[in-house]
Amino acid sequence: MKRIKRILVIDDNAASCQAAAALLRELGCAVETMADARTALDRLRHVVPDALLVDLNIPAMAGGAFVQTCHEDPRCSGVPVLVMAVTPRAAVDAIRMGARGCIRKPVDTGGLVTALQPLLGVRSVCPVNAPIPAATAGSPSGTRSADPPA
Question: Which of the four, 62, 65, 136, 140, has the lowest number of CB atoms within 10 Å?
């Protein structure tokens, strides 16, 4: 039986976070979302996901510093971290700090599958150029959501 991959998405932009989470769910992943670095680091003390998808402009800690903090923590040092970035320069900086890959924002299915495939073995269950699902209107940026365990 194939194990569901658990992904933690950290992004303070609620629409972006929910769109990435929706794409990951379409790929068959269990997803939990966080809006800031401190909340995410606290969560990582209790649950270690299979991968982290982190925006580089999250509150309380720049994404690059978040990547470095994760790699210094023995509990999550082996967890692959993918960063979401708007500029190539920011992506390069995060990779230098230990990120395993970069996805350009806005996130699309093709970029997500390309970045996750070597790390987790996920495959697209929908067309690569599928439209990004719209986030729920008015969803608060601090909302956490989690899929029930399978």
Answer: 140
Q: Using one digit for the tens of pLDDT, what is the confidence trace for 133-148?
A: 444 333 333 434 444 4
Strand pairing class (6-10; 51-55):
parallel
The torsion angles phi and psi of 53, rounded to 5 degrees, stand at -120, 110
Whose CA is closest to 63, among 29, 86, 45? 86
What CA–CA distance (Å, rounded) separates 89 from 74? Answer: 28
The answer to pTM > 0.90 is no
Distance of CA 95 to the CA centre of its chain: 15
User: Please, which residues bridge with residue 143 across strands?
Assistant: none
The helix (H) or strand (E) run that includes residue 31 is: strand 30-34
Considering only CA atoms, give the Rg of the chain: 14
